[in-house]
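FAQ: What does a multi-protein file look like?

Like this. Sequence, then tokens, then the next protein.
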Amino acid sequence: MLLGLSLVAVSGLILVAADHIDAPATMSGDAGDITDVYAFQGQNTSNLVFAVNTQGLLSPNATGAATFKDNVMVEINIDNNGDNVEDLVIQAIKRDDKMYFFGPVAPGTTGTSSTVKTAAASGSVTISKYGTAALTAEQNGMKFFAGPRDDPFFFDLGRFQAILGGTATGFNNPGTDTFAGTNVMSIVVEVPKSMLGSSSTVGVWAETKKKQ
């Protein structure tokens, strides 16, 4: 995902993938399964918002029992010099009923292994519960949210399969949203652009990593 920091709308946002279940063994409820990653300019145009959604296809009945896991860290990677290597990371880790955030900060190591940047603690928020008002927190110029949300992604899977099978030639308008009525577990961070470096464009991707 590439994002121009000077954009005044999200029309220039390039989304490269959406992943709502990796394989039959990776079903809803797996805290490490990322469905989508979003980055967009905040209502305050001096800020950038990052959202990472996990545990796709949660039914309303399953959402109440869905939780983030203490041994799974969500890491947002930010490349601000165009070399496709993370220059900054934002880390989110659950402890009890709160989500704790670290960064943006230079990573201790790049790639698939990470160390928690405890010296760069930026804030925390109480994790919202399903069916209750969303809880947010604001610290150090940043805003935070963690909890269940309606899945914002739209895709007509049935029509897509029909196109692949040769029984349809294109999508309907409007289509049928396969993800309507399903939920995800979301982590959202709003960050001043000034914390992300001086580049006018950043690359963004996210990972979930389990404690070893």
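And here is the next protein:
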Amino acid sequence: MSSPTRRGRARAATESDIRRTARKLLVGQGPEAVTLRAIARELGITAPALYRYYESRDDLLENLRLDVCTDLAAEIAEDIAELKDEGLLQLFQICKGFRRWALTHTKEFTLVFASPTGATGTATGSALRRLDEPFGKIFLAAAGHVLAQHDLVMPPNDVVPPELRDDLTAFQQDLLTVLKESGREIPPEKLDLGLTYLMITFWARLYGHVTLEVFGNYPIPVSKPDVLFEAMLTDLARDVGLYSD
């Protein structure tokens, strides 16, 4: 394999500078502050020069979003590195790590998980929306391990609203592919619509709880949010048959 050319190395270094500057603006001021003009000003170049590296602001934000997802996945992977044989412990450590990261990286959380669909020209808003990305893979690999180890209390297929079945069927196939690639392959018949629905509602409750906490939107003042979060996880475990009194 030939070594990168001088021009290639220079381009890579400039892209790195652009992304590092964009991340600095994101962390310091939020997603709205990440503009091509602001980045050019920080780097001492003209805004049109940035179009040699990114087609648009949306293109830059998408790459920045991927950087943030990669960093989040690396942090979570470190959290669960010593729990490789414990799917349930991994899954709930991932939930706790996600909350911790969200509370300490609020601007990055806003870009990746709380931007309305299309706000950056991409579909953000959920780790499970893009199953092939690092965080989605870690979450689903742990979920697949739990499925292999435990008999979950799953809603029967006939309780799934008919209007959702086409969407869940499409998601089902994506889940099977990602689980297979992660080494957590499960029989297709086990991942029925009821279980797919269960996974979606599990994520929705986790994501909704964390989002409320990050933005301070609990309906009442909560003096011990850690206790509330742990209670929510216990309720989730109980609802799927992973915990009983």
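Q: Is there any per-entry metadata?
A: Some entries carry free-text notes. For the entry above: The two ends are 60 Å apart (CA to CA).
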